[in-house]
Design goal:
Largest sheet: 7 strands, mixed
Strand order of the largest sheet: 13-12-27-26-25-14-15
Strand content: 15-25%
Length: about 950
């Protein structure tokens, strides 16, 4: 094993299709027009010395190390900022160039610490490498570091007021000003790559310093700890604390992040089996070498002291846990389930698959319930968050996934973001989107809250439709009303690609006066003129793309809104090419994959209904069993059946339903009623309070497999360390299946993928060999599209003609009134992830230690609430207390919180209302009242006590 090395070409690649031929050091080379001399030389294998240049950033030309000579041209231009020209003859190494470069390096080294042997960057320092490259052997100006190397003068011991101490405030990296060469790479990375603009250069000349904000500490600045500055730094100025503690890595493996649905690719850099750092991989198709705080730094949960690595069982959920062997735990679980089936029937048990586990693992869990238990009782959190996407897009287009790859946003002229917060929930893609907006794309935000995209450095939304929660359908239909009434429909596209009769029926519907912006303003609170202006921009502004998230799907009309969005895209012809499309931003790393793998009770892998005889028979033949043709139970149906005494056994892999599902008290009653709950996870999560079997899971660093991200991109995860529990999750499921008498003998996840490919048309040509060769592939990958399909519906829709669907607005049953006058909506924050099981066990909690309630100053004043006060949040379902954060980011009448901390019990107040088509819970609309409080509720205190008791582990004496 060795480190995966990436070539740094110095400057970004040119996108020109025109070739230019020139000569570099006597060798002819042809490169695209617009390519820099530096990059052209690197294409030949000639590395011109550089310090300020790197191929992830625009050329800057400040370090002057990369100078070259060009025949017929005076001076020594910088090769990074000089584009190639036809017939140009370049010299990269001459006596004159040698002297210039050594002189430049002398200036750098004269004011730089020479502690290379003890420096954390020793062996990975570009300054050190470049000193060797230019042949520097002495420094005429001395080594006293007159500027900022030493705290005290080495001559007279007096304090050096130019010296600055290290900034250790950030838990993940350190900033050492004495080693800064002011190359600007960190500042440029923060601006160009991340788009936060948190760093600047303070001072001039020898007084220049990199400064977070106005000379703030990193932790107090606007820095979001994405790591772009650390990665860009050519010295040890910005260094991961893990590198300082462990040392330089000696081997690495390319894998995929296990956090959000962006699916960033990383190099896990190691010493032995110890992680040194996670470095975003430049060739990652989803992230292109960028990262966020979670993927870059928050991997420590895999080694956390609370990680459970041994199986445990107990007879009753009130008993302490007993640590047992794997054989005993599997036998105990299988015996319990067999007895339940014998007593209550085969439909009395089921599974919940995980959107955090791999495709292969998810496939095996749903296979277990169908082939082993004999029913279709399989569901997933992907239905709890994004099932309306599958239903709505399938109705309109014939496929249950987004239409574009992430790169498509680079060509968008108009971006409509509805019910999504990309900078917090999908930050790497959010940075990509912000870059396009800074380049001039227009932005429409439809959200009840002022998310960061509405206004941030060098970005301002053209229109922010701050709608009342629950009125998505009305607002999107009003946008369509304007487009139809003002003749902005792309009639040629509709006639060619869609059913014209259905379109006419739809056009008549949206044209009705009740769907006009003026009428919808009364429902949504969005000014009619804002709706009209946004509709005109979307329809006439050029290539328009729609990105949406859980703020669309987690409603009683989630499926209706998805179809309304699809209608909008079809009516304007914004499908089937780059820069357009309908793009769901999936929440967890494998939400798309868990849907693809047949996790729903009514669908087999590939979104094919269990009642389809031909499809079902193909699985029966492959699996050697007879399959049930009746759809099974969804999660809420499982809960209801459990309380009714009909559903008694649950195998829950990698999900924490007690924290993540709505109406927590109902969930707890259901789990308490079950005779056997098997939880498979990394930690004793909240659901494990009611479990009888705990099977310790494996982190993404400890197993092989694949994830499928929000753009349908299938990517490898690779094992970089031995499983702390002894097994990968797929192996645990296989052991459980064998205990049920199933003859499973997979030896590697690649064999599971081969089975998936054989049985699932959209995965037909997917294999580990192909992924190894190509890096990734976007389904469908079959004979019709052997290399995958980055952009869908180019020549036609999968279903044939695109289908326009009437999207009647039906108000939610969750109404405000005198008792509950405010609307609560929920979301996520950058530093935390979903239920927080992973991020809460890292230093990320420094940024978000608790869930708080955002409330508008007007609503707070009416209730006597001040910033930081305890407040009681009461709904028809229950009540909790949180600390208040008074802010105008939410509109009057709306309050907002996150759900990352279990003791907050946010889902105690959310109701059991759900989407009419898919049962996706209505997390985003809960009528509440807010009042001052003096601390946690009785329920929260009881829950805290339950959490402690439920985690007791019996000692040998017991």
């Amino acid at each position: 094993m060795s480190l995966v090395k990436e070539i740094d070409y110095g400057t970004p690649a040119s996108k020109s299709e025109k070739e230019v031929t020139l000569t570099i050091d006597g060798v002819s080379v042809s490169v695209p027009e617009g390519t820099s001399i530096m990059r052209a030389a690197m294409e030949l294998g000639t590395e011109i010395p550089k310090l300020c240049a790197t191929d992830s950033l625009k050329a800057f030309g400040s370090c002057r190390l990369c100078v070259v000579e060009i025949d017929g041209r005076f001076g020594t231009p910088a090769s990074c900022t000089t584009p190639v020209l036809p017939g140009m003859s370049v010299h990269t190494q001459t006596p004159r160039l040698k002297a210039i470069r050594r002189g430049v390096m002398e200036l750098y080294i004269s004011d730089h610490p020479l502690d290379c042997l003890t420096c954390a960057a020793n062996g990975d320092c570009e300054l050190q490498t470049m000193a060797g490259a230019v042949g520097l052997r002495d420094v005429r100006y001395g080594y006293d570091g007159s500027n900022h190397v030493f705290a005290r003068s080495r001559v007279d011991g007096k304090a050096n007021f130019d010296w600055m101490p290290k900034d250790e405030s950030n838990p993940y990296f350190t900033y050492d000003p004495s080693k800064c060469i002011v190359c600007n790479r960190c500042v440029r990375a923060c601006e160009e790559t991340q788009g936060t603009f948190a760093l600047t250069i303070d001072g001039r000349g020898f007084d220049s310093r990199v400064s977070p904000g106005m000379a703030e500490a990193f932790m107090d600045s606007e820095c979001v700890s994405c790591g772009a500055c650390v990665q860009a730094c050519p010295t040890a100025t910005l260094t991961e604390k893990s590198v300082i503690a462990v040392g330089q890595p000696e081997h690495s493996e390319v894998t995929t992040c296990a956090y959000c649905g962006v699916g960033c690719t990383f190099k896990a850099e190691m010493r032995g089996e110890e992680i040194v750092r996670m470095v975003p991989w430049k060739d990652g198709k989803a992230n292109h070498g960028h990262s966020c705080i979670k993927g870059r730094f928050a991997y420590g949960y895999a080694l956390h002291k609370e990680r459970v690595t041994s199986p445990m069982i107990r007879d009753k959920a009130t008993d302490p846990w007993r640590v047992v062997s794997w054989d005993e735990a599997i036998a105990f679980a299988a015996d319990r389930f067999k007895k339940i089936i014998e007593k209550h029937g085969k439909r009395s048990v089921g599974v919940i698959t995980s959107s955090r586990c791999s495709n292969e693992e998810t496939y095996l869990v749903q296979k277990l319930t169908r082939a082993g238990f004999g029913n279709n009782n399989t569901d997933t959190c992907a239905r709890v968050c994004h099932s309306p996407t599958g239903y709505g897009l399938n109705q309109a287009f014939g496929t249950s996934a987004g239409t574009q790859d992430f790169d498509s946003v680079d060509e968008s002229d108009v971006i409509l973001v509805i019910g999504a917060n990309p900078t917090d929930a999908h930050p790497v893609f959010g940075s990509r989107m912000k870059k396009r907006l800074r380049e001039g794309a227009k932005l429409i935000v439809v959200d009840p809250r002022r998310i960061d995209l509405v206004r941030s450095p060098h970005i301002s939304a053209d229109h922010h439709l701050a709608l009342k929660p629950g009125t998505n359908v009305a607002v999107v239909t009003a946008l369509a009303h304007v487009i139809v009434k003002e003749g902005l429909v792309n009639e040629a596209f509709v006639r060619e690609r869609c059913d014209w009769d259905e379109f006419q029926d739809w056009a008549a519907f949206v044209s009705d006066d009740r769907n006009s912006p003026d009428e919808v303003e009364k429902l949504s609170g969005v000014p009619a003129e804002e709706i009209r202006a946004a509709a005109r921009l979307y329809a006439t502004g050029g290539r328009a793309a729609i990105y949406y998230g859980l703020g669309v799907t987690e409603h009683s009309q989630g499926s209706t809104t998805v179809m309304a969005i699809a209608n909008l895209a079809m009516a304007t012809g914004n499908l089937g090419r780059r820069g357009v499309g309908v793009n769901p931003l999936r929440g967890q790393n494998n939400v798309q994959g868990s849907c693809d793998m047949g996790s729903f009770p009514h669908e087999l892998p590939g979104y094919r209904h269990v009642s389809n005889d031909d499809v079902r028979h193909s699985f029966e033949q492959a699996w050697g069993v007879e399959l049930d043709n009746e759809p099974g139970l969804r999660i809420p149906n499982m809960f209801d059946a459990a309380i009714a005494g009909e559903f008694m056994g649950l195998y829950c892999q990698g999900e924490d339903i007690l924290q993540s599902d709505p109406d927590t008290k109902h969930v707890s009653r259901a789990l308490e009623a079950m005779e056997c709950v098997i939880v498979q996870d990394l930690f004793l999560n909240e659901t494990a309070h009611y479990a009888h079997v705990f099977l310790p899971g494996a982190s993404f660093l400890e197993k092989d497999g694949t994830f499928t991200n929000a753009e349908r991109r299938i990517q490898r995860i690779r094992k970089v360390m031995s499983p702390k529990n002894g097994y990968g999750d797929w192996e645990i499921t296989q052991m459980l299946a064998k205990a049920f008498g199933l003859d499973w003998n997979y030896s590697h996840p690649s064999e599971i993928m081969d089975e998936i490919a054989a049985l699932t048309p959209t995965f037909k040509n997917v294999s580990y060999e192909k992924l190894e060769k190509d890096g990734s592939v976007q389904w469908p990958c079959n004979d019709a599209s052997p290399e995958g399909m980055p952009i869908m519906h180019i020549d036609g829709f999968t279903r044939g003609k695109g289908k326009f669907v009437i999207t009647e607005y039906v108000p939610t049953d969750e109404k405000t009134g005198p008792r509950f006058p405010l609307l609560l909506t929920t979301g996520r924050i950058l530093s935390q992830y979903n239920v927080g099981a992973q991020t809460r066990r890292t230093e990320n909690s420094r940024w978000h230690e608790e869930d708080v309630l955002e409330i508008h100053p007007h609503d707070a004043e009416l209730r006597g609430v001040r910033d930081g006060d305890w407040v009681r949040i009461a709904s028809r379902a229950g009540e909790i207390t949180l600390h208040a954060k008074v802010t105008d980011r939410v509109a009057p009448g709306v309050v907002y919180t996150t759900f990352h901390h279990p003791l907050s019990q946010a889902n105690v107040v959310t109701t059991d209302n759900s989407d009419w088509a898919t049962n996706c819970p209505e997390y985003k609309v809960t009528a509440v009242q807010i009042s001052p409080s003096n601390g946690p509720t009785e329920w929260q205190e009881q829950y805290r006590e339950l959490s402690v008791n439920a985690r007791r582990i019996a000692t040998a004496a017991e």
